Amino acid sequence: MTASLDDAAALAAGDPQDMLGAVASAGAQIRDGLALHGGVGELALGSRPRSLVVAGMGGSAASGDVLTAVAGPNCPIPVLVHRGPGLPAWVGPDDLVVGLSCSGRTEETLAAVKTAAARGTRLITIGAPGSLLQAAGAGAPHLVVDAGGRQPRASLWSLATPLLLVGEAVGITPGARAALTGAASVLDGVAAVSAPGIETRSNRAKELAVHLAGGLPVLWGPAGVGATVANRFACQIAENAKLPSMAGVLSEAHHNQIVAFDGPAALEHGLRLVLMADAEETPAAEARVAESQHAAGQAGVPAVVLRGSGPDLISRLAGLIALVDFASVYLALLTGTDPTPVTAIEELKARMAGASS
Question: How far from chain centre, in Å, is Cα 284?
C-alpha cells in the first residue's frame, strides 16, 4: 500500500492538477494576505458590533470556523457561521456581516449579503475582485482574494487571513496579524515534511492516509481547535478522496457516535479513529481524548491522536489543518482518485441554476 505513496511519478500522474501543490501554498497564502490587507485595521468599522455573522458556503465558510476557533469561548460577542441563503431574522444594523465567497458568485452567500445590505447591517465582503459578491455589497468594503486558480478548499488561508484581520479590528482576535506571520512559517514547515518526496515512514500525512485507507474514518476533537480540524478533515476527505467519514465534537460524540464502536460497522467497515486536539486543552477535554482512546482500544478500533504545535493557537490550528489537508490528498491518491475534480457539486449547481431560471 505504501509503495504507491513513495513513487513520485505515480503521485504526479494521479494528481494532474497538482492539489498537493495547492495545499503546500498555505503559508504563501497567509503572507500574500498580510501584504494585501495591511489596512484592514483602518476600515471604518465603528464600535464593536453586537455580533459577527460570517456568511459563506463550503470551503469559503471554513474560514469562519477558523475565526470561531481562534476567538474562542471567551469571545466578547457571539460569532455565527451562517451556511445558507438569507440571514436570521435577528441580524440587523447593530451586527456585522462578513460575506465570503472565493469565486464571488456563490448563490447562498450572495443572497445573505443582499439581505444584509437591505437591512442596513454593517457589511464587509471578502472574495474575488469585480465579482457579483462585491456588487451585492452595495458599496461595502470589499477585501480582495486572489485564489490563483485554486479550488476554494485549497484557498482557506487566502480567505481566513483577511477575516482574522477583521476580527482583530473589532477586538475579538487580538494579535492576529503577528500570529499569522508565525503561522505562515508553521505551514511552510508542515509542507516541507509532508512533501511527496518524503517517504511514508517519515511523513505523518502519508502515515495518516495509510491509517485510514480501507476503513471508515471517525474524526473527533474537543470544541475549538480539535472540533474545527475534525470537521475540516471530514470535508476534505469527501471532496479530495470522495469518501465518507463521521465527524464529531467531544464530549457530544460520547453521547451518540461512540455506540458505533459496539456495532457491526466497527469490524465490517473497519472504523478508524482520529483524535485531534490542541496542545493546551483543558483537563476535562484531555480526559475525553484519553477515554476515546480507551474505548477504541476496547472495541479493537485503531486510533491515532494528532496535536498541534506552535507558540500560539493560530499556529497550532494552522499546522493541524495542513496535516489533515495533505492526508486527505494522499488518501485520494492511495485509492486511485484524482483529488481535484468535484463533479457532483458542479452538476448539482448546474441543475439548481437550471431549475431557478
Answer: 25
Say which DSSP state 49 is in: P
Q: Is residue 1 very low, low, confident or very high in pLDDT (cuts 50, 70, 90)?
A: low
Side-chain-side CA neighbours of 223 within 13 Å: the count stands at 9
Tell me the three state secondary structure of residue 131. Answer: coil
Alpha helix (H) residue ranges in 137-282: 156-169, 176-193, 204-212, 225-236, 265-268
Bridge partners, 307 (sequence order) = 277
Cβ atoms of 305 and 275 closer than 8 Å: yes
Q: pTM value? A: 0.96
The residue type at 104: G
Give the list of residues 6+ apart from residue 66 with CB closer than 8 angstroms, or none.
156, 160, 163, 164, 228, 317, 321
* Residue 172 cell numbers, joined: 475579538
d(C-alpha 237, C-alpha 231), whole Å: 10
Dig out the grid coordinates for 68 from the structure: 470561531
Of the candidates 255, 244, 243, 246, the one whose C-alpha atom is nearest the C-alpha of residue 220 is 246
Mean local confidence (pLDDT), 345-357: 79
DSSP state of 136: H
Task: Give the number of C-alpha atoms closer than 13 A to the C-alpha of residue 93, restricted to the C-beta side.
Answer: 1
